[in-house]
Structures are given as C-alpha cells and as structure tokens.
Amino acid sequence: MRRSSLAARVLDRLRQQAGGLAAALAVFVVVFAARAGYVHAFGSAAPFFDQWDAEGDRLLAPWINGTLRFGDLLAAHNEHRILWTRLLTLGMHELGGGWDNRALAMGSAAVAASLHALLALLAWRGADGTTARAVLVGLAALLGVLPFAWENILVGFQSQFAFMALFSCAAIALAAQRIDAVRYVACTGLAVAAALSMASGVVGIVAAAATCAAAMVARREVRWSAVSLCALLLGLAAVAYRAIPDIAQHGALRPQGIGQLLDALAAALSWPAVSWPWAAVLIWLPFVAATLALLRGALARSADLAAWGLGLMAFGQAMAMATSRGVDLEQVPSRYTELLAIGLFANAYLGFRLAALAAPSGWRRTAAVAAATLGTAMLIGALGKRSDNDLGAMRDRSALTCSHQALLARFLSDGDPAHFDGPSGLLPYPNPARLALLAERPALRPLLHEGVADAAQARCFRQQQREIAATYGLVGDTRLEAMGLGRDGRALPITAGGRFEVEVTVPRPSRLAGAGLLVGTYGGRSDGTLRLRACTPRACAEGDVALSTVADNTMARVALRPALALAPGEPLRLAWTTLESTTPVAAWTFERRSASAAIVVPDGHTGRRPAMELVLDSPR
C-alpha cells in the first residue's frame, strides 16, 4: 500500500509538471506568434535612432572589420550594459548575413515569449483551483499579446528590456525556493546576467535578495546557504550600481523635488489606468496584503514567494523610472510598460492566493475567487481600452519608418546626401551628416542595401520620398490615396478653446467613420479633449479623443458617431477644437502642394495644411 501510494504521488507530480510545461509552451507559442505578426505588419528593416551608433558603428562594423574586442561587448550604452542585446545582434547577423531590424525584433519576441511562458508556469504551479489557474495563465499570455509595449515589439534594439525581465524573474523564482548548490549557482548567474542586460537589472537583483530573505521569514527557518546567497546578491547589486555611468545630460529628466517624484511614481504604479483616481491603491492592494501575510508565515510556498518577489521588482522598476525619468511623467512610455506588466501579473496572482487563504472552501471561497476574477477582468479591461491607441501608434511608427526606408533606399541607390535634407524628426537618425557617413561605411552599406531596398518596395505603401505622407486611409476599401506634403513641418499650437478648420473635397461616395490629425503633445503633457466636428452641406457628426491617450508626434484618431455620409465632389469641413486643456496640443502643418486640402483658419498658416487621414467606409 505504501509503495502504491508513493507511486501515485510520483505520477501525480509528473502530471502536474506536464500540465505546467504544456501551458508554458502554449503561452510561448501564442505570444511569439502575436509579436511576430506585429513585426510583420508594422516592422521596419531600417535601423532606428540608437541602432545606428550602438549596433552599426560600435558593433557590426568592428565585428566585420575584425577589430571588435570583448570589452566592447561590455561597454556602457548610456547608463546600460547591454551584453545580451549585442550578442543577439551579432548572432542574427551571422545567421542572416545582414543588418535587419525585423530579424532582431523576432529574436526579442522569442525572449519576451520566454518571459511570459515563465509567468504561466508559475501560475500553473501556484494557483489554487481551475478558475484561478485558467485566469492567470490567460493573463500571462494576454500581457504578452497586447501591444502596449509597441516600442519594444517593433525595435529589436529594445530586447534589453526583455532580457533583463527574463533573467530577473528567473533569479527571483529560484531565490524563492530552498537553496541548494545548483540553485545557488544558477541564481547568482542569472543575477549577473540581469545586470549585464540594462542598468535597472540592479532592481531585479535586489528583489531576488529580498525574496530569498522573505522565504526564510515566511518559513520560519534560517539556512546559511540562503543567508550567504542574500549577501552575495546584495554585493552584486552594489557593484552593478556603482558601475552605472552618470550621464550629465540626463539630469534634466530627473524629478525636481519630492512632489514631482511622487506624481511620477503614482503615474507608474497606476498604469494602465493612469487617469483613474486611486488606481495605484487598488492595483497594488494585493501586494501590500500579501506582504503582511508573508510576515505572518501564511504565504510560504515557493510560487507565492516568487510572485511576491515579482511584485517587489515591478515596484522597484516603477521607483527607478520615477527617479530617473520623472519630469512631467504623466503617461508611461511604452518601452517601460513591459516591466510594469509584471507587477499586474504578480498582484493578480497574489489576489487569487489571498482569496484562497481567506476562504478555504464553501460559498465564501467562491465569492473570494469571483472578486479576484473581477479585479483581474478590470485590469484586462483597462489594457484593452488602450489597445486602439497602441495599434494606432504602431501604424504611425510604421508610416514613419517606411519613410525612413524609402530615404535610405534612394540614398543607397545614388549616394546623394540631399535625400536627408529636412526636419530631423522625419529621419532615421537625428544628424543628417552623420547618417550619411554611417550609411556609406564600407562595412555597413552592403548590410543596409540587402534589407532596406526590398522592404521599401514591398511593404511601405504610405511612403513618400522625403517626408511622412498625409493619407486618406480608406478602411474597408482596396487602396490608399496619398496626398503629397512639403518637408517644412511647422507646429501650430491649439490652446484651450482654440480651433482651426480644414476643408477637403470628397473623392468618391463613401461614409466618413473618423479622422486622424498628426499632433505633438509636448512629450505627453497635452491634456483635455480634442474634438472633431465634420460637416458637409447636408449634415454634421462629432467625435472626441482624450489627449492624455495620444502619444507625442502621432496621429490623434477620432471616431465619428454616427458615420457621416459623403457625396463625391462636395466640400467636407473638419473643425478641430480643444476643450478643458491646460497644456496645448500642436497640430503639424506642412507646405501645400495642391488645393485638395487647405487650412482655412488661423492666420499665419495660410498656404499650409495638416498631416491628416480620413477613415472612409464604402457606402451601405
């Protein structure tokens, strides 16, 4: 009987492990497929900004020329040591023989998918009951699929975020267990790897040390291997912190006073519901309650301690963000949201575990699990609410980088640096002279030509030779009608109550479902509402968008309810107005090449027009 019972326990353990691994594999496939789809739809072959220096000039060119040293792989990039991102770049170059951002983005997608698979495995092993397990595994997948971290998804160089998060979370998961020799070495190695991913890997190392200490507190035991690991991790964190360079020009990005620091921290902790009062309190309440339960010894399982450590790491990342980039941080930049999403998962997990502890069985257990499920659903709702804007930002970045590819393709074909004349914001690198110099480097030019020229012809349907196209996006139709723009972009501030009007001629029978306006939000500081009133001689329709949801230098898209019927040849007047704003929004205007669209008001911009798109459905 005893052997039979032991065999049954072993088989049950194997079934549990198999289920968790299957769930993790499924999440990996789903997340990787979704991100690969984003890269295919919106990605660009051309290097973007930092990639020119960090990848091209300081990595690929020396590698090809045979002058790259090991120390170059560990050299600082701003505040960061990005060893794994550099190795990924070299690996993709050796595999494909080129320099293609899309390949790097695919590699980054695999790393991010591994992170979410790890979260799913944690949920499977630690959640109580089928409902909690299903919700948390689904949440682990959804956090990897939704496009809120679109900058990290589309730019392969941003893989440093995924590497750091993966190594930190894995170190925390090991630190939550009882420490033996293998886990000791593995946790230490992962901590070093996190520090060599980016600067805020220090936060992950400290969180792993705190998790190791919390495990001893929760289990009411002192193990010298664990004490030694805690001390070693803290020592590594101190060394890594001291190795972070002080970038003088970044001082302007740090908060000026405790008030600005607390505002920035509140914005980070409230994500994704930054505009909701007390969102940070509601989102992080499970973590606070779990900390108290841990101190009482109620949360002693490895998965529970790991989830607590993930929450601590996410809180630390929010604090690091607030202290280093906290000036006027009202909207969290997309590249940081991937780290904050780990905090959402941790709080959801801890919410379900606290519900199980509060009510082990009966109707109270059902009610507690339902409450935790509802809280998780509200988080998912907040994330889903912003998805349209995130996809819009992807489309805008795609249009911009397609323009970059067109410029590079033309430069590579004739070597004329005049292709890079124009506003720096429309170039793939802010310094036109250095851009031409880098693109002409013998080691880099063949790599660029292979990917950029093909991509510029195949997928960049909205590109223009030297500028972003203002387009009529015919959603639901078969074509796009591009309107040519001049290169001379000029910002037109629209203050509270201010307005300007644009008049266009309707190209064909259709229904106007919405419109977009290329705006600058002064680094995300614009607030209030942007209202669109669209009128033909026969009818009008209106729609609004909250400016706090619009990223800087992207399309502010407004849906009209109901859609407005249009007849060919009739005038369509679009009036844009700001309401209840304290910081203006700027509409980008350009030299007009045709009479198809012109700004009617205000003075000083006569002969110019906005970068605009109309969403036209076929008439029903």
Index terms:
620 residues; alpha+beta; 6-stranded antiparallel beta sheet; 5-stranded antiparallel beta sheet
Overall geometry comes to globular
Oligomer: single chain
β-strand number: 15
Helix content: 55-70%
Which stretches are low in confidence, meaning pLDDT under 50 for 5 or more residues running? Answer: 455-487, 593-606
Radius of gyration: 26 Å
Mean pLDDT: 81
Structural class: alpha+beta
- Largest sheet features: 6 strands, antiparallel
The proportion of residues in beta strands is: 5-15%
Tally the helices.
Answer: 19
What gap, in angstroms, lies between the N and C termini? 74 Å
Describe the structure.
The structure is a single chain. With 620 residues, this protein is of the alpha+beta class. It is 56% helix and 15% strand. It has 19 helices and 15 strands. The chain has helices at residues 2-42, 50-65, 70-74, 83-96, 101-126, 129-145, 150-154, 159-175, 181-195, 201-219, 224-242, 258-270, 279-295, 302-325, 334-358, 362-385, 387-414, 432-439, 445-458; strands spanning 76-77, 80-81, 470-473, 480-483, 490-494, 499-505, 510-520, 529-535, 540-546, 554-566, 571-579, 585-591, 597-601, 608-610, 612-617. Strands 5, 7, 10, 12, 14 and 15 form a six-stranded antiparallel sheet that branches. The chain has a five-stranded antiparallel sheet with strand order 9-8-11-6-13, with no helix packed on it. The chain has a two-stranded antiparallel ribbon with strand order 1-2. Strand 8 and strand 9 form a beta hairpin. Helix 2 (50-65) packs across helix 4 (83-96). The model is unreliable at 455-487 and 593-606 (pLDDT under 50).
